Amino acid sequence: MDQIKYLKTLALLGCDQKPVKISVKELETDLEASDKTISRNLKFLEQQELIVREINPSGQMILISAAGMKLLSKEFADYKKIFDVKEHIDLDGTVVSGLGEGQYYISIDGYMAQFQEKLGFTPFPGTLNVKLKEYCFDLRKKMEEFPYVKIDGFSDGQRTYGASDCYPALINGVCCFIIVPERTHYKIDLLEIIAPVKMREALKLKDGDEIKVTVGEVC
């Protein structure tokens, strides 16, 4: 099945914003499929956690999940690449200290090898952490529509390590990447940034300093 076609059709009916009551009959024309095929494919999308459905005697309510919206955002980003649409956003925030986890995870061989191959550099073992201003939260969500580099999850035989998405960015002339782990509890108000240099030293930053992070195809 064409997942994007189904998700796009549902989004155009408003399912990207809130649960919408939709009958299979309504979808037949746009999806050019029989009611049985549509019902089967909606069930599949639900099983893949791309949509959330609530079925009752009067019909069904459908909402596109966060995972479904991310799939649509990736498709949108690909089209922007095809048509060479250049775009960037500026995120304002404050430098804060992390918990030291960045150094551990970045140094793991399964991640480091991918950083070197896919990002084109060996990152400094640690992250620059930036707490976003509240007025940037909506822009931070928009960032997920931008092109990114996928860092695959893996297992070392003892434990499993999750995947991450890396968004190209620029801070005071230094090219870097915002790394976003694919986990549901990730904080939207915090950016974790990796770079080939120690950002605090290169840019003479300390906790409390306010900085601007430009996200997009800027490097």
Helix count equals 8
How many E strands?
Answer: 12
For the record, the CATH class of the largest domain is Mainly Beta
Order of helices and strands: HEHHEEHEHHEHEEEEEEHE
Major sheet: arrangement of strands = 4-5-11-10-9-12
Q: How many structurally independent domains?
A: 2
CATH superfamily annotation of the largest domain: Riboflavin kinase-like
Rg calc:
20 Å
Reported CATH architecture of the largest domain: Beta Barrel
Oligomer, anyone? Answer: single chain
Q: Major sheet: size, sense and barrel closure?
A: 6 strands, antiparallel, barrel
- Rounded to the nearest angstrom, the distance between the terminal CA atoms is 37 Å
Shape: elongated
Which fold does the CATH topology of the largest domain refer to? Elongation Factor Tu (Ef-tu), domain 3
In which range does the helix fraction lie?
25-40%
Class from secondary-structure proportions: alpha+beta
Low-confidence stretches: none
Structure commentary:
The mean pLDDT is 91. The protein has 8 helices and 12 strands. It has helices spanning 3-15, 24-31, 35-47, 66-82, 101-107, 109-119, 137-142, 199-202, and strands spanning 20-22, 51-56, 59-64, 88-96, 128-132, 149-151, 154-155, 160-161, 164-171, 174-181, 190-194, 210-216. The radius of gyration is 20 Å and the shape is elongated. It has 2 domains: 3-81, Winged helix-like DNA-binding domain superfamily/Winged helix DNA-binding domain (Arc Repressor Mutant, subunit A), CATH 1.10.10; 88-216, Beta Barrel (Elongation Factor Tu (Ef-tu), domain 3). Helix content is 36%, strand content 29%. It has a 6-stranded antiparallel beta barrel. By secondary structure, it is α+β, with helices and mostly antiparallel strands.
